[in-house]
Amino acid sequence: MAENTNVLSEELQQKLEFLKRYISELGSLAVGFSGGVDSSLLTAVAHDVLGDRLIAVTAVDASVPEREVKEAVSFCETRGIRHIVCKVDPLKEEGYRKNSADRCYFCKRGIFTEVRNIADDNGIVYMAEGSNLDDIGDYRPGLRAASELSVKSPLREANLTKSDIRLLSKALGLPTWSKPGYACLASRFAYGEEITEEKLHMIDRAEQILIENGFLEERVRMHGNIARIEVPPSDIPRLAADGIREEVYEAFRELGFLFVTLDLKGYRLGSMNATLKKTDKGSE
Description:
By secondary structure, the chain is α/β, with parallel strands linked by helices. 45% of the residues lie in helices and 12% in strands.
C-alpha cells in the first residue's frame, strides 16, 4: 500500500499499530469483504500483515448490486489480494424473507457459515467482519450472528470509529476512503413487508437511476407500491427541480412504483429502524 501515515495523529497511528498487531496474532484470516469503507480498510491492512494467509470473501445475492461486486473484485485484483466470490441465498430463510426485525441476523448467519466453509477449505483459522466502534450504538442484529459464529471484529478491537477509518484509508491510499456508506438492498424495505428477488431488482434499478443522475448518496425505500427517495438535504432542491423530477418520476413508474415521494428529512442511514419499538430491538 502507498502509505502517508505521517499525516495521522499520534492516537490514530497507535490505533493502526494495534490493529496490525491484533491481526498478526491471529495468524490467518478470512474477511467478509463487501467492498465498503470498513471492510476495505480491514482487508488491506490484513493483507499487508498476513499476505496470502488472508482471504477476502464476498458473498453475493440479489440484495447486492452488481456495481458493488465489481468494485470489490477490482479492489482485490489491484492489490493482489486472494479473493473468493460466493453465492448465498438468504431468501430461503423465512425470517429474512418476511423481513422481521432480525432479518440481518439470518442473512449474516448464512454468510458467515459460508465464509467458515471457505476458510476451512483453505486452512484459514479465523474469520473477521468490518464493523466499527460507531456500530455498537446502532441496531445491528447481524453482530449477534457474528458473535455466535466466533467472528472477530478487529476494527472495533482497535477502537476505530467511522471517521478514523476514513482518515486511515485516505492515508493508506485506498480509493474507498470517500465512498458513501452502503447497506444491502434488503434494508430498503419497511419491516414486515415481504422481500422478493423482483422487489430487490426494482430497488437496485431505482437507485442506479439516481446514481446516474449524480446523486451518489441516496436511498430508495420501499413502502408497498410507494418509493420514498432519500438524498442529502443539499441535493433536495436539484432533485425536486422541474426536468429531473419528472424524469425520475417517470423512470420509477416504469419500474412498477405507483407513487414516488421525496423524504424532506433527507438521507440518513438506517431510517427504517425508526419504525422499531425498543422492545423489538432487544440488546442490539
